[in-house]
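Inverse folding, one chain.
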């Protein structure tokens, strides 16, 4: 019974997270700036804390095409494990019908992990090519909420730091 309650407690507490994101065009400039940030936590026998920050800078090549560079930093610390992940690379977005978008991004990730029970450290890198798209809905003047999914076409099941090739996306975009 204790294992069932503990499992339910962990499963429900992992959902504690917050995320912000955005992109802003300044005046008549074609440059866009934005990014996202997230925080997560969990309770129980493997309680922990995680934080992520992903800034980006883009340039609107045309009304429907944007390209730029993005970076990402993730930190996770639990009772038994800690890791840092840093990624950087180019991205491109194609917007159509003002409600849909296609997206592609390449990132090279540098990963450092530590097993706190053994003291063992691992460091390695992994490339990811995310392709996907989604739906945008207007929430204000030049502001949109995005719902989408990306897939890492370079993902290999037993040879990746990521548990899956699919990545859901929920965010906000300002200035399109």
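Residues assigned per position:
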């Amino acid at each position: 019974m204790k294992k069932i309650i503990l499992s339910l407690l962990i499963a429900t507490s992992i959902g504690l997270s917050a995320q912000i994101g955005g992109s802003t065009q300044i005046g008549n400039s074609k440059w866009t700036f934005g990014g996202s940030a997230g925080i997560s936590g969990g309770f129980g026998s493997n309680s922990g804390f995680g934080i992520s920050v992903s800034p980006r800078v883009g340039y609107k090549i045309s009304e429907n095409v944007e390209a730029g560079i993005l970076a990402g930093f993730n930190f996770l610390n639990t009772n038994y494990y800690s890791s840092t992940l840093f990624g950087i690379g180019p991205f491109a977005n194609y917007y159509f019908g003002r409600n849909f978008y296609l997206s592609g991004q390449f990132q090279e990730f540098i990963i450092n992990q530590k097993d706190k029970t053994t003291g063992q450290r691992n460091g390695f890198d992994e490339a990811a090519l995310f392709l996907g798209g989604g739906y945008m809905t207007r929430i204000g003047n030049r502001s949109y909420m995005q719902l989408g999914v990306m897939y890492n076409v370079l993902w290999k099941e037993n040879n990746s730091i990521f548990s899956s090739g699919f990545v859901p996306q929920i965010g906000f975009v300002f200035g399109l």
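The radius of gyration is 18 Å. The mean pLDDT is 79.
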